[in-house]
Each structure stands twice: as C-alpha cells, then as structure tokens.
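Structural prep section.
Before we set up the soaks we want a predicted structure of the protein with calcium ion in place, mainly to decide which crystallisation condition to try first. Input record follows.
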Amino acid sequence: MNRKSFIKGLALGTISFPVLLRLLAGKNFAQTKPSSQVISGKQYEWKLVTTWPPNFPVFGDTCKVFAEAVEAMSGGRIHIRVFGGGELVPALEAFDAVRNGAAEIAHGAAYYWAGKSPAAQFFATVPFGMNAQQATAWINSGGGLQLWEELYAQFGLIPMLGGNTGVQMGGWFNREINSLNDLKGLKMRIPGLGGDVLAKAGGSPVLLAGGEIYTSLERGVIDATEWVGPYHDTLMGFQEIAKYYYAPGWHEPGTTLEFIFNKEQFESLPPDLQEILRAASAYAHLWCFTEMETRNNQAMHTLIEKKIDIRQFPEEVIAALRDLTQGVIGEMAASDPFTQKVYTSYDAFRKRANRLSRITEQVFYNSIQAPM
Ligand code: CA
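Run finished without errors. Recording the tokens verbatim:
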C-alpha cells in the first residue's frame, strides 16, 4: 500500500482498525496484504497467563485491554481468558506454560527468561540501556523484532510488544547516597543485572518477593529497594517508611513488557485473526505506556506535594555504575554468540539514539526549566 492509497483508504474508511494500528506500530506498508480469504466462523477459547499477581495495576489491566480489543475486533471469534500469576501456573512458569501448550499466550517481561538465554534481557531492559521510545523504535523498526523472533522461535514461541514502564525510579533508601562509598555494604532489593552491577560496586543485592519488601525495609532487613515508578511505588506504601526517593532508575531505563504466543497455535489461526492479535498487541503496548506516564505524573505530583525527599544519585556514583555496567554486560554478551549478536544490534542503536536525543530531547528538557 502506498501513502496515497493509504490516505485515500483512511478517508473512505476502507482501512480497518487492525491495519491502521499495525501501520501506526511501524509495520512496513508492503507487509500488509489484503486478505481474500473467506472469514471462518470458528471460535477460539484461549488462555493468557501472566507473570504479575492477579489484578496487578496497569500491567494486569494491559492484558484485559488486549483481550477486550481482540474480542471486539474479531467479533467474538477469539475469547481470551486472563489468569494472574499463580491462578493457572506459577508466575515465572508463564514462558514454559505457553511453550508446552498449557496456555496460548503469556504476558511478562523478557528479562525473566535470562536463564533460557541471556540475550532475552535486551528485549526487556538493561542498566543504562534504552528508554521506552528508543527501545520501541529498535524493536519495531531497528531490527530488534527480527532478533527477538529468532530467539523465541528456538522455543516454539512468538514475541510481541506488550507495554513499557517508562524510566523507572532509582528506589527508596534509608541511607543517604553521597559517594560511591555509601554503596558499600548497602543491602538493596534490586533484581537482575542491576543487582550484579550493585554487587560489583560493593553493595549486597537482596532477592525478595513483592509481598516481603515493605516489612523488610521497615524492619531494616534491607536499606533500600527499587520497585517500578512513582505510581506503583506509592501503592506499595514505601513513602511511609523510607527517607529518600532517588532518581534515576539507571538499572531499568524503560522496561519493555511482552506478549508471548505459542507459535504453532498462532500460525494455525486464519490470517485475519493473526493480524488482529498483532494489532491488539500494538494497541495494548501504547495503552500501557501512556497509562504509566499519566499515573506516574499524577503520583509524582502527590509525592512532591507531600514534600517527600526526592534526590538524584551524585554524578560520581552514576559514572561508576555506568562503567561497571559496561563490564557486566560485555561479559554476559561474550558468553554466547547469539547474545553477542543481539548486544551488537542493541548497542549500535542505543548509541545512535542517544546521539540524537542529546541534541533534541535533552536540549529541550534543559530549555523548559520546569520547577520541581
Ligand atoms: Ca524495577
């Protein structure tokens, strides 16, 4: 479809909602072929398992938004039932549940599958990696999706975008961080690569389930914790028990969420239903990201009004963490050829994206001088 017929199609209303969404999601015009197939009336009852607790705000809602969009666009031909973590299978078994056919779809974040391949982490987030806008661009039109599909095909799965958290916060601290020395012995709940980097800086990353964090911080079992951003953090109540709220979330600069499909089941669907699932994923991705922005800016406003002590990590600390990150990620990438291939693509895009944003977004943010 060329640009002229696309605009004409929009004006005449002959471009369907799914096609429009797919185009908005950056899919190549030439990839979208009109289907001449007769629409089958077959009904599908599918299950979607998540890595989040049942009814988890925003992330769980993203699954409901996705299921409702699929149901509406397919005229009820696909009905998707959403299960929170533990309701059908344990949260962190979602990947294998889709692999072995216990569910057709999962929603989560690819860094949970680092044990399957370290490369998976680049499709969620890595310390000092890309923000939501940059990561979405890399996946949609910078070659990321092809690599992600190649990785998940090894497991009989298909990945699609399923949301983004935006830049997270650095976390809640009961210890001031004024120098690198203050990280020594710091007991912090921080999972994944961020935890590995903290350990290299002399800290002690602690693994805790969501439900254990509040009391551990309150009782001094840990000195600090990260979670998500102002909205989710406020729901956890950390502002009641922590002295300082530090920025930025250097360890999670924009975590991409994902839908995972059983490849065989997906490919057995008629082409129009496959398109609907792709379109609904693009829709849910955008819904989640904008919902996070809206709820986070409301929650941050409230925290500022309540005079919460919001701070920035000193440049010395950020510079050291950034250097240590290079070593940790470089080492991880060198451990396996496919991970190295993904890292090469990710890092090249990240560097170009940052060259652009330093001259556009960063200069713009500096120019607005919004009061705290
Ligand atoms: Ca986090």
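Observations: The CA atoms of residues 176 and 182 lie 7 Å apart.
Flagged for discussion at group meeting.
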